[in-house]
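Lecture notes, part 5. Sequence design as translation. It can be helpful to think of inverse folding as translation between two languages: the language of shapes and the language of residues. The source text, in structure tokens, appears below.
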């Protein structure tokens, strides 16, 4: 009997709606606050940042939001993405668990990020916007928005965190191939960038600083709007195509996950895989374990404070109630650049507070060890971010081996690591080191949190 490895859906089964977890939460997520008045944000307060439909989705409580046909047409370039059974990894571990992964690395930019980049670009085009500005860490989001902008005729300006700009030149080259302008952040082209560089000329950058530069650019340009790849509700909403497809594919496999795992930096790919299952649970379905895995060097969920904080370093974005390390905190230069953000998505943070999600922190050497084992077994080289989910999945599989249990594990393989070979070379030549955050700097950043509810 042939053992099935891949579970594939045809194009007709691409979801027709995005799933909005806000409709099923037992208590609502605390509202965004205005950065100057600290009053709850009104839709009109966001008009200078986002297209009208993006604002509507950000504040929506509708359970299902239709996906425009034009967006689904682009999704067909890579969606539905495959669900894979990791038979060879199971054999290598000698586990009694069954391991599945949803592979998002077959998208044009190599990660899950186009799931939101495509609709964001389309909604802005429909609103008559000509340019988009954004930030990026490892470059997965920047490459995705650059691709989306090219499809819909939008100029794209990308501020890439300096340490990733230097570590990952080929992701930068991909953004530029798609037609975007990419600069290292902090840059000399913005007031916030010049301010940072005047104090620290060799500053490695942070996503908080890059966000400030992107937003400053938007505020100075009436024909430009902001697009972001994680954290806010509308981004998490767009990513739920992942979990909706996975629900169908797990049925095809005749299995049902006991444990769902995703890496977590801002929360987008974790939400994408987990939220449709969590929503099903909230509507009376079975309970599961949900594990959000973050870097030990940027431990937002495991060591951050649940408080209102700015999404950027300069304090010009709305405040969100989230797990945060402080908007002035600069994480060390770990290779999982997409996970180097000081805050976590408000909705993911809210679920942690409700006890529905288990956060976990992992150092980067065990993550690369897990990624290498996965590549040798399954043939796919994972992105450093995705390695965090793989490390946790392997831990759970080994626990099942010890206990003799047969849990079904599902994790999101959020992207490939083809542009991260220098990191793998460092790991294989014993040059990669585990990094720790500066405890004094963390305490200083937390002490500066705004007092807002």
């Amino acid at each position: 009997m042939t053992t099935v490895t891949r579970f594939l859906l045809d194009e007709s089964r691409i979801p027709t709606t995005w799933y909005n977890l806000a409709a099923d939460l037992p208590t609502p997520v605390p509202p965004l606050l205005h950065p100057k008045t600290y009053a709850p944000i009104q839709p009109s307060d966001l008009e200078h940042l986002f297209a009208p439909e993006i604002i509507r989705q950000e504040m929506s409580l509708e359970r299902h939001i239709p996906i425009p046909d034009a967006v689904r047409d682009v999704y067909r370039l890579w969606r539905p993405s495959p669900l894979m059974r990791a038979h060879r990894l199971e054999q290598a571990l000698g586990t009694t668990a069954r391991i599945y992964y949803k592979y998002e690395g077959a998208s044009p930019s190599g990660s899950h990020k186009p799931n939101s980049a495509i609709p964001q670009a389309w909604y802005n085009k429909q609103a008559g916007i000509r340019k988009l500005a954004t930030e990026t860490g490892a470059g997965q989001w920047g490459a995705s928005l650059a691709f989306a902008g090219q499809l819909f005729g939008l100029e794209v300006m990308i501020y890439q965190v300096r340490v990733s700009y230097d570590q990952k030149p080929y992701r930068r080259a991909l953004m530029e191939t798609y037609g975007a302008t990419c600069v290292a952040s902090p840059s000399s082209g913005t007031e916030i960038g010049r301010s940072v560089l005047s104090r620290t000329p060799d500053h490695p950058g942070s996503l908080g600083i890059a966000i400030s530069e992107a937003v400053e650019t938007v505020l100075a340009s009436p024909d430009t709007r902001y697009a972001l790849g994680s954290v806010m509700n509308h981004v998490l909403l767009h990513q739920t195509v992942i979990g909706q497809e996975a629900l169908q594919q797990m049925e095809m496999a005749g299995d049902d996950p006991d444990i769902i795992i995703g890496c977590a930096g801002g929360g987008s790919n974790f939400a994408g895989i987990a939220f449709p299952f969590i929503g099903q649970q909230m509507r009376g379905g079975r309970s599961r374990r949900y594990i959000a895995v973050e870097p030990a060097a940027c431990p937002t969920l495991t060591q951050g404070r649940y408080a209102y904080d700015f999404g950027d370093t300069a304090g010009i974005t709305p405040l969100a109630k989230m797990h945060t390390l402080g908007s002035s905190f600069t994480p060390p230069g770990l290779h999982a650049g997409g996970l180097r953000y000081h805050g976590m998505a408000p909705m993911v943070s809210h679920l942690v507070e409700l006890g529905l999600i288990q956060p976990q922190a992992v150092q980067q050497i065990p993550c690369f060890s897990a990624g290498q084992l996965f590549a040798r077994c399954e043939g796919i080289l994972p992105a450093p971010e995705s390695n965090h989910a793989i490390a946790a999945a392997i831990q759970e599989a080994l626990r099942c081996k010890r206990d003799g249990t047969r849990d079904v594990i599902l994790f999101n393989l959020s992207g490939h690591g083809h542009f991260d070979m220098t990191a793998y070379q460092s790991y294989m030549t014993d040059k990669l080191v585990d990094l720790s955050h500066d405890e004094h700097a963390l305490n200083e950043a937390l002490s500066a949190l705004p007092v807002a509810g």
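The translated text above is only one of many valid answers, since several sequences can fold into similar shapes. The radius of gyration is 20 Å.
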